[in-house]
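To the structural biology subgroup,

Please find below the input and predicted structure for Ferric reductase, NAD binding domain containing protein, which we are adding to the shared reference set this quarter. The sequence is reproduced verbatim from the submission form. If anyone notices a discrepancy with their own records, reply to this email rather than editing the shared folder directly, so we keep one authoritative version.
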Amino acid sequence: MDNSYKQIQNVEMATPTASPASWSYVASADHRELESLPIQSLAQAIKVHFGARPDLKKILFESKASDVGVLVCGPRKTRHEVGR
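Predicted structure (tokenized):
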């Protein structure tokens, strides 16, 4: 099986400041929509993991943010595991 089917993306960005329809992030007190960011900025914020799920507990505990959200999609079992 091709590894591209096993990709898991961990996107590290600030918490969205608006509804999902108009997500934006704060950069030096400047509000900008994600679509307006240079591709390089998005590429630097993405970590791709192959072959296994990332260690979410470790990622969340290492986060310096006071408020962290996690978006999960997939089979029910996966969603429940992430919720724990």
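Summary notes: Residues 3-83 form one domain. The beta strands are 8-11, 24-27, 30-33, 46-49.

Regards,
Lab coordination
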